[in-house]
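ok trying again, last paste got cut off:
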Amino acid sequence: MDKSAELAKVASDLEAAGVTANLKATATQIVPGAGNPNADIMFIGEAPGAKEDLLGLPFVGAAGKFLDAMLAEIGLNRDDVFIGNIVKYRPPGNRDPLPEEIAASIPYLKRQIAIIEPKLIVFLGRHSMSVFLPELKISQAHGKPVRKDGQVYLPLYHPAAALYNPGMREQLLDDFKLIPAIIKKLTN
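nice, full thing came through this time. structure:
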């Protein structure tokens, strides 16, 4: 089975298992993630928002447009990376996912990671970072690569934070521009 088919199976297994059925009941559809199944870079956010829920794709709202612009700044686009979220259904009212919803979703995200085998996982925001690196604070960890259990992670502020706080925009862009050098180091 190729990686695209394996990723599709993860999504269908999640749906069949009724994982976060409470979220599924209020969502339009599953948002399993999208992009290159052979990507060196995987971006992980927290959960789909309203626009993502409607289109079935991650990061397609205002934060997604900023993510696209940052990718372009480093010579990449969505076809070069894989983008997903911890939780695969939109929480009602755009609330934060509950701890039990995150815990139920993690095995499926870990299966996605195992299939893609990214060299670098970039956390978009503190919520996704705290699942894998709970000991860190985003205000101190952003822009600093971390190696844990053989995987390299890069915590970043969430693109939406830069939309609401223009002062964070430059910081996020500066941190984002570290990605090519990190990938180069990991591939040499």
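cool. The first strand starts at residue 34 and ends at 35. The two ends are 29 Å apart (CA to CA).
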